[in-house]
Write a structure and sequence with these properties.
Layout: E1 10-12, E2 15-17, E3 21-23, H1 32-41, E4 45-51, E5 65-69, E6 74-79, H2 88-101, E7 106-111, H3 116-128, E8 133-137, H4 157-171, E9 176-179, H5 187-197, E10 201-204, E11 208-210, E12 214-215, E13 220-221, E14 232-235, H6 240-253, E15 258-262, H7 268-276, E16 281-284, H8 286-291, H9 295-310, H10 315-318, E17 337-341, H11 351-359, E18 364-367, E19 372-375, H12 385-388, E20 396-400
Parallel strand pairs: 3-4, 3-16, 4-7, 7-8, 8-9, 9-10, 10-15, 15-16
Antiparallel strand pairs: 1-2, 5-6, 6-14, 11-14, 12-13, 17-20, 18-19
The structure holds flavin mononucleotide (FMN).
The site of flavin mononucleotide (FMN) has 27 residues, from strand 4, strand 6 and helix 8.
Length: 402
């Protein structure tokens, strides 16, 4: 059962959303039937996989998927996918079909080109198809306009502003999001360039260029594509902290500028975090690819319960609520905290002792006979390393001492 709750409702760039969860541009939005299934499952909208002009060659290589594991859990996913093999005429047709079948959902499309004429043609065709919003992928290596070759568009402030201005010129009132990469020195400068272009907001962010690993038997980098490999786009849980920082940094410096949060959001708790640092809605790809469209049930019920329990009447009230507590390092309060062992919860594993001995301040001594750690209040600086290795919740805790 999909929850429809007034708390989850919001307006995003003038588009009504029954909940904040949108399917991001990816394989799940590339085929009409699959996209339909996502909307039927309860997603509030989707962004069709990035499309291009009919003349653009999309030369895919397989296998394209790989993962980054800790042995048991998939922490991150890698892909060497490119944009959609479906070109603009087909995608515009599909957008218009979806809009007629799902008038109350957000139907958006993603585009990429390499010339002013190309970008503007794509925008006009989608506008004619009755699309609600266009997202521009400025975070694919193929998207540059000739300056700074090899770079993604969103790695150059001047290219970002120039191309975003072309897009907005053609789009007029149609909302435009620019999808950026977090892999830049100054994310705020890129965000400012987008704001100056007149575009409506930012999708923060796309997958992050990564080398997924090396098969140590054959020494072939992963994924192995006929004995060769290349860099992948890293997505999923592993990139959430980078996404949160990217959203927060833009929201702190450009208050009120619209952000669609994307990258590593896997469950409703992650979505709370992204909203709390300034995202206006949430896009998800990897969690759906791995677990199916059905995760929308847990996302919506989990977020709604959270809002109710915390006394928020709408997701809008949650947006940006964590930002006042986020400051620069030199503005942090200097508190004296120390680690304390809760003997009744200690299982005598010795992990805190080892971590403090070899990675901390040698403030934890070890009673071999009773298998008990003891913290020296004089030596402990309160770094918190021991808490990271605790196997039992609250077997150690930090307490203020002054
Ligand atoms: C296989 C695959 C294909 C993707 N294709 C596109 C694409 O065509 N256009 C785009 O803007 N992003 C594309 N993405 C990126 C996703 O839209 C999303 O930004 C990224 O996966 C981060 O979100 P996540 O951690 O929830 O997966 C793709 C991601 C994957 C895994």
């Amino acid at each position: 059962m999909i929850l429809t709750s007034s708390r989850l409702y919001s307006e995003f760039l003038g588009i009504e959303l029954e909940n904040p969860f949108i399917l991001s541009a990816a394989p799940s939005t590339d085929e009409l039937d699959i996209a339909r299934a996502g909307l039927d499952a309860g997603w509030a909208g989707l962004i069709l996989k990035t499309t291009s002009l009919e003349t653009t060659v999309v030369d895919l290589a397989y296998p394209m998927m790989s993962s980054f594991n800790d042995g048991e859990n998939l922490l991150g996913m890698g892909n060497i996918d490119l944009i959609s093999a479906y070109h603009i005429n087909e995608v515009a047709k599909r957008a218009s079909i979806l809009k007629s079948e799902f008038p109350y959902k957000m139907i958006a499309a993603s585009i990429m080109s390499d010339s002013k004429e190309g970008w503007q043609t794509l925008v006009k065709k989608l506008k004619d198809a009755g699309i609600d919003l266009i997202e521009c992928s400025f975070s694919c290596p193929q998207g540059n306009v000739g300056e700074d070759p090899g770079k993604m568009l969103a790695q150059s402030e001047s290219a970002t502003e120039k191309v975003a201005t072309w897009v907005k010129e053609a789009a007029g009132d149609l909302p435009i999001l620019i999808k950026i990469t977090p892999q830049v020195t100054d994310i705020v400068a890129i965000a400012r360039a987008i704001q100056s272009s007149g575009c409506d907001g930012i999708t923060a962010s796309n997958s992050i260029p990564a080398l997924m690993g090396i098969d140590i038997e054959s020494l072939t980098p992963i994924p192995n594509v006929g004995g060769r490999s290349t860099y992948s786009g890293l997505t999923g849980a592993a990139i959430k902290p980078i996404t949160l920082r990217t959203i927060a940094e833009i929201a702190r410096n450009l208050p009120g500028f619209i952000i669609s949060g994307n990258g590593g959001i896997t469950d409703w708790r992650d979505s709370v975090e992204a909203l709390a640092v300034g995202a206006g809605n949430i896009q998800i790809c990897t969690a759906v690819m791995l677990n199916g469209f059905g995760i929308i049930e847990d996302l919506t019920s989990g977020l709604d319960n959270y809002l109710k329990e915390k006394g928020f009447n709408s997701i809008t009230e949650l947006v940006g609520e964590a930002l006042p507590m986020l400051v620069n390092h030199d503005e942090l309060p200097r508190e004296e905290v120390r680690s304390f062992v809760n003997n009744d919860r200690c299982i005598g594993c010795g992990k805190c002792y080892i971590a403090c001995r070899d990675g901390g301040h040698r403030a934890i001594s070890w009673d071999h006979q009773n298998r008990l750690p003891e913290v020296s209040v004089e030596k402990c600086v309160g770094c918190g390393l021991c808490l990271l290795v605790q196997p039992v919740e609250n077997c150690l805790e930090l307490r203020k001492v002054n």
